[in-house]
Amino acid sequence: MDGTLIGIVAFASVIGLLAVRVPIAFALAGVATVGTFVVFAFRTGAFAPERALKPTTSLVFSNSFDLIHSYDLSMIPLFIALGHIAYRAEITTKIYHAARVWLASVPGGVAMASVVGCGGFSAITGSSIACASTMGRICSPEMLRMGYDKRLATASVAAGGTLGSLIPPSVLFIIYGIFTETSISALFLAGILPGIISLLGFVLVIFVWVRRTPEAAPRFEGQISMRDRGRAAFESWPAISLFVIIVGGIYGGFFTATEAAAICVSAAVAIGFAQGKLDLRGLIDSLRETCVQTASIFLIAAAAKIFVAFVALTGVAPAIVSAVTEAQLSAVLLLAAIAVIYLVLGMFLDPIGIMVLTLPLMIPLVETYGFDLIWFGVVVIKLLEIGLITPPVGLNVFVIANVVGKEVSIDKIFSGILRFLTVDVIVLILIMAFPVISLLIPNSM
Predict the structure, then answer these.
(1) pLDDT tens digits, residue range 352-393?
(2) C-beta of residue 276 within 8 angstroms of C-beta of residue 328
(3) Where does the sequence pass through the membrane (predicted)?
(4) CB atoms within 10 A of CB 330
(5) What is the value of pTM for the model shown?
């Protein structure tokens, strides 16, 4: 039986299983295991299942074992733990409070502060959904209470939450780096400028929104002294320090991304206990939540590694590369096609699922065209970021809808999201057209 045909059937089977809500880890591992068995069983021509059992089990267990014992993978639980500990120690929320004090007199200032707060939260936690969930509980109810337009109060946080995918550290960058064997430190640095541009773009959307529709945001009545601003800025020093340790340490070559994660976890625990914001119970709860999230991500990563080995076995990736080469697609058309694929998948699947499903096919194709894998990683993460707020299944939108309950309907949140999506698409085009935006910082290391 033709290996390419088996590979195509396997991809269709995974997409079908995901469509009926089978967990991504079970879908990938199950299809890859069965597909590998079929490939080995038909290797001699006639169906010989007795010859397929041993090589199939060897491939499945060796690939999953090698991944779980990967050094780079150890930074995932560290950064997840950092996010939970920093939240319980109130380190992440201080950025939001400082931004709110400084922007209080600006029309739409609280919404802008929410986006800035999401950026600060992202710079520590690395998870978009966790960012949207946490900041949604803090920001959206407060804006609704103040009389903000319901679309602005929810959409600004849903969009701001996507920054967790791009601003380092990012769990998606870690997974991309592991599967493409690229430098995770370089990927972190490559996401800084695109992340900042995205954040500023969201702030601009709010500014224009409130400028055109003043009733969308209430005017601030009162005065805030420079002393209050200075105090708010000073109180945010723990979050700023952690970000400087991560980015400055990696950029300066003082330590690796994994070492930066370990140092920041220790620093967050010490700061939390020293300020009296964290106790032993809070630390244990943070570690428990870390274990649950880490186990979920590790299962998906292990299943994806098995699936990658299966795809290599079928030869479907070289077949696709050959077909695209023969079609003589230009680089622009190829990037446009890749963008469409990711945006369509982003409407229905979660970011990690999309990444592990598509990378085995995309990376050989991208390498054939000579694209920089660090730059392409930023493009992929930006596409996945857009998918988090794209209807009909934008995960961040549903997270915010769950936070605000019946007070704001999902269709209202999506109607507000469209303005932020416009900026996201513009930023995506800029990143694609000018790779220097992503590569400037990592190339200067």
Answers:
(1) 888 888 888 888 888 888 899 999 999 999 999 888 888 877
(2) no
(3) 6-24, 31-48, 68-87, 152-179, 185-211, 232-254, 297-321, 327-349, 361-380, 386-405, 417-441
(4) 9
(5) 0.83
